[in-house]
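Contributing new records

If you add data, match the layout below exactly. Sequence lines come first and carry their own label; structure lines follow with theirs. Keep one chain per record. Anything else will be rejected by the validation script.
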Amino acid sequence: MKKYFFVFCLIFVISTSSGINGQETLLVIKKEYLPYPDTTLIFQPEGINEPENLPLVILLHGWSGNYKQWSEIADLQYLSSKYGFVIATPEGFYDSWYVDNTARENYRLETFIVNDLIPLLIEKYKIDKSKIFISGLSMGGHGAITLFLKHPDLFLSAGSTSGILDITAFPGKWGLASALGSYVNHKELWENNSAFFLLDNFREKNKQLIVDCGTEDFAFPVNHKFFHKCKKSGIKITFIARPGKHERTYWAKSLIYHLNFFKNILTGNN
């Protein structure tokens, strides 16, 4: 059964399904600065009678993917219950790069995630706002780290697997010019939205990052470069380099590393 709530320009569609994904919720949000309504899958830990003050993990999908990508890679309901996290997987609109787009109208993803999605999740799912984590794969790895570096007060930690952590190294790829304009004409804008360059002004030295990338992945050089810059800048980072390519089998294993890392931060074991 679906319920529809209409409030001015904002539309929420909440539906739940039973069976294998008994705790799975579908959240649809329409905003005037999105190209079409965002769809976010929500997975809540099972077996909690009065859930409150729960930690949240936001997982961002990769280029050309959608909000279902992470749920097709791993059993998110099982992982939500195992680790005690609410897990949310929003829509990244194919090639948004999770930035406020200057080249296309109605693609303000940073504004949406920070100002709309996260406050709604905190309220609706009784999230402890001091225990919010974000991670992602490929384009989503870029999005997770850049959002963390821009808004460190919002996130306790962040992660990236196979992330494009320096977008300036790939100026002609994956719709980046559609998100930020051409690199030649908008170099400063690109650097202001590249995780590698955002490290220059990051001052939250007590917060930790986890970054991993397969050694056979085309993104490995920028990940390795990002890691060394973190070390040089005194930023706490766990960097995992293991055999693997830019593919789902690699990301399924990486997700476990990231959830363990986030859980250890909550328990004080990191």
